[in-house]
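Help wanted!
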Amino acid sequence: MVQLALIRFEAACNNSPTARNQGIYTGLPICQSLSHSTSVRAGSAMGKKLLVDVDCGVDDAQAIMMALAVPDVQILGISCVSGNTTVDNVCKNVLRVLKACQRPEIPVFRGALKPILGNTLSAGHFHGQDGLGDAPDPKAPGLDRIQKEGAVAAMVRIASEHAGEVSLVATGPLTNLAMALRIDPNFPQNLKGLYIMGGNTDSRGNSTMCAEFNFAADPEAAYIVLNEFLCPTYIACWEFTCHSKLPWEFCDVWLAQDSEKARFMKRIFQHSMDASRGGCFQKEMVAGDGFVSCDCYAMAAAIDDSFVTAFHKVAVSVELTGTYTRGMMVLDTQELLKKKHKAFVMEQVDLEKFKALMMAALK
Amino acid sequence: MVQLALIRFEAACNNSPTARNQGIYTGLPICQSLSHSTSVRAGSAMGKKLLVDVDCGVDDAQAIMMALAVPDVQILGISCVSGNTTVDNVCKNVLRVLKACQRPEIPVFRGALKPILGNTLSAGHFHGQDGLGDAPDPKAPGLDRIQKEGAVAAMVRIASEHAGEVSLVATGPLTNLAMALRIDPNFPQNLKGLYIMGGNTDSRGNSTMCAEFNFAADPEAAYIVLNEFLCPTYIACWEFTCHSKLPWEFCDVWLAQDSEKARFMKRIFQHSMDASRGGCFQKEMVAGDGFVSCDCYAMAAAIDDSFVTAFHKVAVSVELTGTYTRGMMVLDTQELLKKKHKAFVMEQVDLEKFKALMMAALK
Amino acid sequence: MVQLALIRFEAACNNSPTARNQGIYTGLPICQSLSHSTSVRAGSAMGKKLLVDVDCGVDDAQAIMMALAVPDVQILGISCVSGNTTVDNVCKNVLRVLKACQRPEIPVFRGALKPILGNTLSAGHFHGQDGLGDAPDPKAPGLDRIQKEGAVAAMVRIASEHAGEVSLVATGPLTNLAMALRIDPNFPQNLKGLYIMGGNTDSRGNSTMCAEFNFAADPEAAYIVLNEFLCPTYIACWEFTCHSKLPWEFCDVWLAQDSEKARFMKRIFQHSMDASRGGCFQKEMVAGDGFVSCDCYAMAAAIDDSFVTAFHKVAVSVELTGTYTRGMMVLDTQELLKKKHKAFVMEQVDLEKFKALMMAALK
Amino acid sequence: MVQLALIRFEAACNNSPTARNQGIYTGLPICQSLSHSTSVRAGSAMGKKLLVDVDCGVDDAQAIMMALAVPDVQILGISCVSGNTTVDNVCKNVLRVLKACQRPEIPVFRGALKPILGNTLSAGHFHGQDGLGDAPDPKAPGLDRIQKEGAVAAMVRIASEHAGEVSLVATGPLTNLAMALRIDPNFPQNLKGLYIMGGNTDSRGNSTMCAEFNFAADPEAAYIVLNEFLCPTYIACWEFTCHSKLPWEFCDVWLAQDSEKARFMKRIFQHSMDASRGGCFQKEMVAGDGFVSCDCYAMAAAIDDSFVTAFHKVAVSVELTGTYTRGMMVLDTQELLKKKHKAFVMEQVDLEKFKALMMAALK
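Answered by r_m:
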């Protein structure tokens, strides 16, 4: 049985009425037709400028390393937010990743300590207590390396200085983004694009019953971002990342590369791999066992416009008041909300490109 | 891409670990293994006793006619509930269906005028204002043919008189069922099985943003039934019925049969067909255009134990407080609710059997 | 400072514009002006017929005994509902009260085991585990004395047999009443009046943060009753009963009467008195320490039309979805709900009459 | 009937057990006993430093003018927030007030355009469309006079520069305050005190059914502030301001003063007075007709420590999810939330002092 509302590349190229009616687009037509796409956005990453907002657990680390490995991608700053672990741990983890990649010049900013309402959700230590596999590095850089400027102020400033040129990749709770909007209402329109890992399409929760962790950790922030960020918004939801998993065999090869980066990754990833493969987190998995590096799908989409081969273009929002569903992303497939702004919800990707980006990350 | 959590008959017969871990069952193993199944429950419908609770729109009518056409099925009573139309219209519609099938002896009971909280949800007149395609019959039986005994009292009495032998098929809002439980706490355990058309598995709404009509029309009743009916419970959800649709070509052949029943169906179905095929309801459809007789899937499952070939065995409940998700069925795939009672959520059916049952209904 | 929206008898007799504008009525004008009041409803209780619905804790017992002591009051039946204790304990407690008053002929009916949604709220054992002070009576009547007819069916039948003549006094969760409405939509209009102990006027909770026990124990039932019972509805809310408390000195005199009834009351009341006077429940009390027999205010209002001297006439409803406020009664003072039906929320009573009714109850 | 939980000065001085048990304090004992009160906080306003956060309607203007008229009070900055009118109108209104008082040197900062969730609540134009009585001034200062620094950044900076010395008076929705906390977690503890006009004590709404405007306009912000600002917090709730109203006769004398300020006030107040006295807003009023300058009670409390003569010391929070009660302040009188931090909810004030402060404001 083919997954609902998924049209393959070939069908869409035929411009079938069904595809158009259901608001489904594939990679190529989007590149050609989207009105916001004025600059060159080919498969190459020529001159891509990124802001990266993370709650740096292991898959955030993988996503940062993926971006650092692409020659034409420029990371203007990395902002930290509480999520997988405390914001101080997140800051330390980002510094460690940058050190492992020998890129200490990239500025790192401390952001929100807590979600908007202040009630912290436990991440359940999938990534270890420190968010990076509890594999401490005695020579890790200190917090004095963090910028004095706060994350929200820095995000607003950088987006303004590079208005229309910078894409924001958000792989944690969206607290900093929501704050940036309230500080500067122009923040979203200064962005070229927004790439989010978070949310659900099919009500399959991985932390609460129906909600994905990043959205469940700060539902109000997710609500604000999905409703008020009117820039082009691309979302890698939890179920999508599960369906796009890689085999563990790939992971073995990936980690076996003879490089400092690969050895670093092996150390910090061991904890999560043990947890995953040991079956503790099987109930959360939507499509069975496998290597799901959630945040990397959002990053890959930001890096390479041809990575995503099918989107569901649909208005989205977030449930705030549900007993079982608080934090769940909702899709307005019936267009009951009458929203003009639609998000691009990722449906299908080029896994060969993904593997290539992943391999490069640890070279 | 294969739909999540769906294991085909063959795989399950192999008793693959994946299938067992994910609580997925197929028709045959269920018949053999379920502890509650003491009587003969083979593909034949030998001696099946049914109570049918309907909000008789056109697909309820189709479901009733399907059951009436199976020789060994005995309908002990039909209880009516407000839903697709007012309860008085529902009563009239059921009487018309029984007349068309020349089965006026089956007792019909009037049930709840309103959902539990009293706030009626409009059915949007998909089935016409009168619920039966606005194709009035001047010779239709009058409401004096309705039993004096109320639906809830009758359901409680009949279930008690045939304790352990009667299956309840519910194709409307679950108001009467919830009331019956509060009147007689033994009501659920007197049932051999409960077959429901209603609810969602993937947050795809057909009346509100995330909720299916029968559950959205009385979320409290659905909550009560899913949480307190501890009898074997089989659910045909909205997305499942969409994925299991028949081609319109089948419908044409079906209606073209030379019989009074087929001509009756053609008259009452015209309105819905025009609405469906005209595209007005396309946005609601989950898996594209087609002939989706929702209620018939629940009825077929009650009639023929071998009809359903794959279930998802999972604890379920209903969201009551969500802004976008009120009335949405939730699946506790992570077992966070610690509920012992699991429902059998239909995943895959034998469509050839379904076509045969459908054809027979109008013969 | 005079309590808001409270106009004394004298002011109202002057028909001051303020009083009329604010929908405030006093006892006498109501008797003369209310359109539903066709029969004689003077201070005397001539021919009063009552249905009493209780979750028989100690103050329910006091209310029943108050009614039994008034010559012209006829109790047609007592229906039991889960609340202060299990419905079986409630049934036993009512039988004990009737035995203590030598009125075993009054029929007692078993009602709902659970509130509508099925989630039971603990009453915190203010009235003891058995609801009647944990002072067991080895000679107490057995449950075989309970009627075979269920409470809801009996309430519907009795109200229908005495249409327009019977007042319903409800001193527990309103589950049975809500059920009776769904079974017989005419049930409310068959009632002459409805007298409720329950709900709040000022968001002062006594079981949850903002909700009174009877409403918090079944918020859906309270919602249904306040929104769909269009008969004259009189409500003794929690804060009102606190403000109308009697001094403990009165209680001492009351219990010191030389009668079987007084000795019975002393036994069953000891537990609650110890709890109250010991300070354990001080935080719940709205207006300081004192003897608050909540249910008796609703009963006294039903018995004697001149008992209540000031009402607030206002549309009311119940909050169902609040985190802190679920079960809280809400007053629509700004008329935002546009409801025609207004309740009479008790504001001031004749305490001398109350004392007289109380004293008579134990004579 | 005396208002609940109100103990007069005399009673409290006697240290009556009731007063202590119920957490009620009067002005003097608070001054003497509160541990946070290290500096001189006598009736004089010697050296008081204020930050003022407003959604400048007419009563905000009155509050600002009250503070400007007290010699020893120093306003370090006025931050603007959307509420009674748009944030740009608020900015203009504050500039007009400062001009009318010849205090153009006080810095004014633009804050949040929208509440946290982004959904604006209409203020119903009680203060006119422009928030200041629709009495435009062609010579009003332009928005170029607004500081370039944003309100949140300025609040954080000023509180840090004057740590422990500055009191914050908030008379609009609490958006800016909540933002400041997330930008700088130390913000609350840098404040000497927080004085809020907003919220309810008795569920009497003035904009929605149960909620006061400032809290209803941004419930999330109110929730954050009441739960995370651990500085001494004084709240002038809606019902309290209604009970503490002044007679319209006072208002007439007040406005009749021969001064520029009085003439300015008369112009901008005419619209609200017409609305109030014309009866359009009578239904909202809790304690009958009168002159209720809500924001001035919070300001007077910040200016003069002896102004408030009775508080209710109680933990408070805000309902976020209620259907009728969203935005309602809740009092945890039963201490169910186990919160250590208690707010000082104003119960009784010295109205003579209030009149004197009011008169001085327009001199």
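OP: Thanks! One thing I noticed: Confidence is low (pLDDT under 50) at residues 1-45 of chain B.
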